[in-house]
DNA sequence: GCACCAACCAAACAGTTGCTTGGTAGAGTA
DNA sequence: TACTCTACCAAGCAACTGTTTGGTTGGTGC
């Protein structure tokens, strides 16, 4: 057996990054272990020296990413900021996550729903609920304290923000025309003030 | 040969609808012809009496949907409305399209990028450019005429609107808590006036 | 010189994939 | 009765899938 949970050789990390790029570009199911091996310059069987299965690769990619994200979210939610500032910080953290973990975010967006049907990926459902609770807490607080308008449905507002932010992974490219911070600025401007003239 | 381009038996349409639901739920690549046949209560080989290939199924689903959508968009753009009204109508048409063609929209969102690499799906790239031109025309006109604020990047604004609207297919369900019109109302409210208190 | 080890190769496996072929049941028609 | 057509079955094909197995390579420590 190759992967023991604490193993983290540089080659292993390299292979995982290659797999993540391919999963993100073509989808988990459509990416074969031979695709990954080809991109890495080895034979498909050699991947199994580093990983138990193709599933364990995507598992590690997604769970590592989510653990990091929740750590950052937690830091915001336990802070003394008001709802408006928390919301802004959550949005900025999210765009930064897209910048730093683009493949992982893309895989989550495209394949998580199907993967979550498997018991192995139970944590995807759990984390989804936790994620939702975090955002809804800030939104509800914002409405209660008057930081956000109170004539909209909170659930639809949550979905609007969530989708708007994370779907940007479909076109955002590090080193592209706009930095993650610039995108976050403009998106927050539209989100909070709207597109109409002031 | 089975499909002659004008063939449109009810059984054929039925099979196409079944395929569309499966493609939307699991992805084009991950859906097998046996999955489709099982769902239809026939054997996989029998599908080839109605369709040339699995690809021709998704081709017909996507091209039919896009043709209908462009027809509706055209009606708006050639009208005498001002930019603000055109924008509202485009958004409402789009949500209605999600309502009426949910599987097709989902397939487009999830699989179009990969399919477009194939020459057969050249029209996906062409239509994408046409789509972009249509929306950008309205956005630019809105900024020029003062209907939209002028301190934002038009390209990012376009992406914001586009993504915000179409990604709703991931969670919208006909007959669910909110109708397509209700979602459109709330999304337009956020889009145009923002989440902040007035 | 020897043992050890991570990384990889070469070859194969059983199952799945999209698709083809030749045939058949049943309804409509003349 | 004979013909035609739509819709389907039954069986199989070659290619591809994730994974396993036993063996090889080149480097490191002693």
Protein model, in words:
The structure is a homodimer of 198-residue chains. With 198 residues, the first copy, chain A, is mostly helical. Chain A has one domain (55-193): Tetracycline Repressor, domain 2. In chain A, 67% of the residues lie in helices and 0% in strands. Chain A has eight helices and no strands. Chain A has helices spanning 10-26, 33-40, 54-77, 83-100, 102-115, 122-145, 154-166, 180-193. In chain A, helix 4 packs antiparallel against helix 6 (122-145). The first copy, chain A, is elongated. Chain A starts with 9 loop residues before the first helix and ends in a 5-residue tail after the last helix. The A-B interface holds A 25-27, 29-30, 110, 114, 142, 146-153, 155-157, 159-160, 163-164, 167-168, 170-171, 177-178, 183, 186-187, 189-198 and B 26-27, 29-30, 110, 114, 146-153, 155-157, 159-160, 163-164, 167-168, 170-171, 177-178, 183, 186-187, 189-198. Chain A binds a DNA duplex (30 and 30 nucleotides) through loops.
Q: What is the β-strand count of chain A?
A: 0
- According to CATH, the fold-level topology of chain A is Tetracycline Repressor, domain 2
**Biggest interface, and residues per chain?**
A-B, 42 and 40 residues
Task: Tell me the count of domains of chain A.
Answer: 1
Order of helices and strands of chain A: HHHHHHHH
Helical segment count of chain A: 8
Overall pLDDT level of chain A: 93
Which spans of chain A have pLDDT < 50 for at least 5 consecutive residues? 1-7
* Beta-strand content of chain A: under 5%
CA distance, first residue to last residue of chain A: 63 Å
Based on the coordinates given, report the CATH architecture of chain A. Orthogonal Bundle
Q: Oligomeric form of this entry?
A: homodimer
Give the helix level of chain A as a range of percent: 55-70%
Please tell me what the overall shape of chain A is.
elongated
Largest sheet of chain A: none
Name of the CATH class of chain A: Mainly Alpha
Taking all Cα atoms into account, the compactness measure Rg of chain A is 19 Å
Q: Going by CATH, what is the homologous superfamily of chain A?
A: Tetracycline Repressor, domain 2
- Given the helix and strand composition of chain A, which structural class is it? mainly alpha
